[in-house]
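Practice problem 4.
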């Protein structure tokens, strides 16, 4: 049983970067919070929805540079809630897609704290759509998988690229830019064709969005020469070719208007 005086924690998805892609429900939850604990990939424009007297706590994590380790975040969520606070844990994308939202919800449940998940648009969907790449497309792809490009802990099993190479039509790879050469090598070793189209979407849905396209044969060299950095999403599959068709159609439509 949770204590009667305890507050409540909302684990909220902020969407993929464009502040207009946050949900109405998420925006309302931010507006009712006493405490907003927000991550590195959250667009800070969204913090304007918070109450003027709300406490804003940055707890973002970059590679080898964590403002707060996960254990400290968990402890803070519990402590704030036990003080009777309404807490919003604001995460980029969706909290249940590589967002560790499940871990935080389990921690809260263990301490008898009430919690609620507010979904967000995850990067695979938001960034791909913003780059004019459908994750599924009739005749090209009937399935897609969201995959992590790295592992947070050394004791975890590696990603089974050998299985993914042939069981899924489209791969949406998160956190994989620094491992792009290795991912490419694993997919090729597993029988994926070197001609398979690949796109890297840097800072998807934002005004700084950049899209680099190539194939498994050359994408690692292109990304390196163009100095692609995180946050970036990697899309592997025939659907990348649809982008060319959509951009061509867009240019033709613009020409007709002119």
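Answer key:
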């Amino acid at each position: 049983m949770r204590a009667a005086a305890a507050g409540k924690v909302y684990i909220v998805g902020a969407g993929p970067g464009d502040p207009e892609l946050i949900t109405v429900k998420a925006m309302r939850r931010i507006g009712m919070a006493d405490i907003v604990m927000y991550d590195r990939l959250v667009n800070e424009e969204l913090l304007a929805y918070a109450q003027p007297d709300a406490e804003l706590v940055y707890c973002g994590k970059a590679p080898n540079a964590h403002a707060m380790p996960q254990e400290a975040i968990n402890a803070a969520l519990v402590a704030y809630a036990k003080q009777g606070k309404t807490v919003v844990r604001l995460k980029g994308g969706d909290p249940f897609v590589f967002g560790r939202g499940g871990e935080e919800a389990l921690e809260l449940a263990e301490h008898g704290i009430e919690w609620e998940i507010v979904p967000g648009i995850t990067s695979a969907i938001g960034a791909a759509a913003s780059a004019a790449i459908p994750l599924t497309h009739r005749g090209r792809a009937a399935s897609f998988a969201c995959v992590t490009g790295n592992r947070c802990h050394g004791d975890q099993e590696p990603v089974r690229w050998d299985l993914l190479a042939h069981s899924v039509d489209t791969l949406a790879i998160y956190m994989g830019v620094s491992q792009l050469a290795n991912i490419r090598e694993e997919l090729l070793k597993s029988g994926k064709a070197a001609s398979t189209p690949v796109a890297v979407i840097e800072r998807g849905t934002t005004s700084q969005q950049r899209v680099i396209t190539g194939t498994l044969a050359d994408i690692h060299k292109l990304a390196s020469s163009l100095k692609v950095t995180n946050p970036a999403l990697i899309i592997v599959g025939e659907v990348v070719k649809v982008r060319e068709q959509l951009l061509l159609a867009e240019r033709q439509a613009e020409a007709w208007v002119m």
